[in-house]
Amino acid sequence: MAIAIAIIACQSLQLPSKPLASTAVSIKLSGWGGSPVEQKLLRQVLREFEVQHPTIKVKYEVISDQYMDVIKTRLVGEAAPDVFYLDALEAPFLMSQNVLEPLESYITPEFDLTDFEDTLLDSFKYQNHIYGLPKDYSTLALFYNKKAFAAAGLSNPPATWDELRNYSKQLIGKLNKYGFGEIPELARQAYKIKAFGGQLIDQNGSATFASEAGLKGLELVVDQYQKDRSSAQKSDVGTNSGSEMFGQSKVAMVIEGNWAIPYLTETFPQVEFATAPVPTINGKKGTMVFTVAYVMNKQAQHKAEAWKLISYLTGKEGMQKWTGTGFALPTRKSVAKNLGYDQDALRSPLVAGVDYATSWQVGKYPSVIVNNFENQFVSALLGQQPLKQAMMKAQNEANQQIKAME
Q1: Which residue, 12, 89, 132, 193, has fewest beta-carbon neighbours within 10 Å?
Q2: d(CA 333, CA 311)
């Protein structure tokens, strides 16, 4: 796939001449499906864009299954959309394949690039080019059940991971079966690996999460699950997500993102909850940040019009409309300030976390890193093998697969 994309992307293309002003240009935008409310909101924002740009029509397509596989296949077949969503996790590979249009030449001073959070914008930079503009993001924060805390005599959320483990023991059976809901995916464990100086990958893209420093962070998770028996995975309690585990009161605490706020409010209105920063580990603040950008297909025939769409959706006006309902957090600092999310009782810990968050990126071959880690880490969590053995096995297997792909 990498070779095929690279070959096709390097072919020279004869772009058509710019259409007459009276001719309506059609731009295709592709993304994955969100909630019905989000879909309705985006379509509304796109209609407003078309009103302001009457010579541009946007054809919005939802790819509901195997999104990245579909996009990569279309890029090879020269049938990719003009503009599409790109998750930060998948960005390093596509940015390295010369299939995305660099955007810096389109960006004017009025667009105010400095308004974007640096952590988010940096996820879409590669070899001195900007390939995407982040449309929204979420960090992780601690969600806790206020009634369960009151029942256990706890007045404040835990500030450190040691406190979280202590609280978890006290919360067992206090309106909840377990104190804490653990999500063993690498996307929820990366900041723990980094808390003691560990890294997910090295500068060459090889997996390094099995280092002694990295194992220290993961040991906290295993010890809480096996020794304290105060945490549970979603499979232990028959739920599909951390948010559902928390909403069903199976656990009193869980670490989740902004998406959990509307979900819990709508689906479990009886649950009284609050949020707080992720507890510090080894004296260090830590969380994850997940972001998605709008990117332009390098083979798009109407690049000027595609840029107008991207610049509207990620400009101050479009972004405020898109993020104004709270379903997503704005990547522009000015929009976040206008909407008051930094003062919002539930969202302020999420907004504050972007300054010290670990970006969710693991090199050009994320599935190899993620799959090997998660298969072995879950095995260690369940006590089927020692943690160090599991992580070394995962790291070695990942690196063998990466070597074979390069």
Answers
A1: 12
A2: 16
**Domain 140-288+361-405 CATH assignment equals 3.40.190.10:** yes
Q: What is the pLDDT of residues 146-188, one digit of tens each?
A: 999 999 999 999 999 999 999 999 999 888 789 999 999 999 9
Domain 20-138+290-359 matches domain 140-288+361-405 at the CATH topology level: yes
User: What is the residue extent of each domain of the chain?
Assistant: 20-138+290-359, 140-288+361-405
For residue 333, what pLDDT is reported? 95
Does position 108 have pLDDT exceeding 90, yes or no? yes
Is this model's pTM higher than 0.85 or not? Answer: yes
d(CA 250, CA 236): 10
The rounded distance, in Å, linking the Cα atoms of 75 and 60 is 17
The string over 243-259, giving b where at least 16 C-beta atoms fall within 10 Å of a residue's C-beta and e elsewhere, is bbbbbbbbbbbbbbbbb
Average pLDDT of the segment spanning 187-203: 96
Give the pLDDT confidence score for residue 143 in this predicted structure.
Answer: 98
Per-residue pLDDT of 333-368, as tens digits, reads: 999 999 999 999 999 999 999 999 999 999 999 999
The CA–CA distances, whole Å, from 385 to 263, 269, 393 equal 36, 41, 11
Pull the structure tokens for residue 34: 């969100």
Tell which CATH architecture fits domain 20-138+290-359.
3-Layer(aba) Sandwich (3.40)
Contacts of 170 (CB under 8 A, 6+ apart): 152, 153, 154, 179
